[in-house]
Amino acid sequence: MKLPMRRAAAIATAAAVAVTLAACGPSETTDAGAATGGGAAEDDKTITIGVHSGWDEGIAVSHLWQRILEDEGYDVELETADAGVVFTGLAEGDYDLNFDTWLPLTHASYMDEYGDKLEELGTWYDDAKLTIAVNEDAPIDSLAELADNADLFGNKLVGIEAGAGLTKTTQEQAIPTYGLEKMEYLISSTPAMLAELDGATKAGNNVAVTLWRPHWAYDAYPIKDLEDPEGAMGAAEEIKTMGTKGFAEANPDVAGWIKKFTLTDEQLFSLENIMFNEMDGKDNDAAVDQWLEENPYFVAGITG
């Protein structure tokens, strides 16, 4: 997942995408009026999932659901595109499902534009947020303590890309709110931040990094979020599954399974860690296989 880049890009993408897809013309239809391109109006067992490009948790969960549905006899197609393309396609019935809709903030503009053509099928994660994290055994637990203990962290806070929403929030909100101006704020890249985290962990050193939930680093490293008593990093969001309008009526069994679907931090972080860290995103189907072997009763709790 690349959460920090999202909020800045979401609104700009929506308008451009709507124009692009409109120019492509309407979907072909059968004599019965059903779209031939994977929408909920189809009378077969083909389901098309729109996946936001670069959003790790959505990629992971979409591949998990591909396996669940295929095991139940469905033909499942995953199509990856920018978020704006996905929501436009979902509204037009070109996609049936999206498992990575962040509300009430990140994807609010798409709900404003397309909400009457979509239907909410469930909330599967409720603690998506921007954070500043430290090693689990660090001697502080709150951002309010960081300034007075900056020397314990080498007087630096390790960040990610300059254009990321997380970077902006840290610069404009967290640093002035908690008096962190004297700390060196290192703005570089997500891989560089993870390398700093990895090196500090192996060396047994304290480290402070900007991060976000969900992320596989929480499964790979012994880290904790610093409490944010002033709410400078923003409120937690929910990740929801959205369907094209009419999906639940056309697919009541699938809609029922999705309604029951939730992931804990441990479950989600471990799935992402296997897929994107251990397997480096090269074999997502194998990652799902391994995760299901480690969670043998998970699917039965949804479809059973």
From TrEMBL:
<dbReference type="GO" id="GO:0031460">
    <property type="term" value="P:glycine betaine transport"/>
</dbReference>
<keyword id="KW-0732">Signal</keyword>
<keyword id="KW-0813">Transport</keyword>
<feature type="domain" description="ABC-type glycine betaine transport system substrate-binding">
    <location>
        <begin position="45"/>
        <end position="294"/>
    </location>
</feature>
<feature type="signal peptide">
    <location>
        <begin position="1"/>
        <end position="22"/>
    </location>
</feature>
<keyword id="KW-1003">Cell membrane</keyword>
<dbReference type="GO" id="GO:0043190">
    <property type="term" value="C:ATP-binding cassette (ABC) transporter complex"/>
</dbReference>
<keyword id="KW-0472">Membrane</keyword>
<protein>
    <submittedName>
        <fullName>Glycine/betaine ABC transporter substrate-binding protein</fullName>
    </submittedName>
</protein>
<dbReference type="GO" id="GO:0015871">
    <property type="term" value="P:choline transport"/>
</dbReference>
<dbReference type="GO" id="GO:0005275">
    <property type="term" value="F:amine transmembrane transporter activity"/>
</dbReference>
<dbReference type="InterPro" id="IPR007210">
    <property type="entry name" value="ABC_Gly_betaine_transp_sub-bd"/>
</dbReference>
<dbReference type="Pfam" id="PF04069">
    <property type="entry name" value="OpuAC"/>
</dbReference>
<dbReference type="GO" id="GO:0015226">
    <property type="term" value="F:carnitine transmembrane transporter activity"/>
</dbReference>
